[in-house]
Amino acid sequence: MLELGVTFSMEQLVIDNDIISMIKKAMDGIPVNDYTLAVDAIKEVGVGNDFIGHMTTMDNMDLPSDPLVINRDMIGDWRAAGCKNLAEAAHEIVEDVLKNHTVEPLTPEVDAAMKAIVKKADEEFLKEA
Asked: Whole-prediction pTM value?
């Protein structure tokens, strides 16, 4: 437990965020209609045949989730793109965020509200001390 408070992986945070986003998207539900059920594609391709390369499959592939770092490319495409593993992809995002992200300043109203909360907590603490 001591180490938990000393070390932290920003890459793991990016990966965890990707997993959480995928779960949240799945929890929002997946649209069910003739297109997402591929009714026309089944009629076109025929039961028992290969649907993987059909455009309907490609269009609907990201409906359950759309990860940023988890790579769903076919292995040949993944290799052609440099075989980047999950940690490497997450590290690139971390580097980009550290280099390019800017934090928007709080509005004066939000800043005042937060200061009021801290002041109230400080006053309550001092009363008990």
From this structure: 0.63
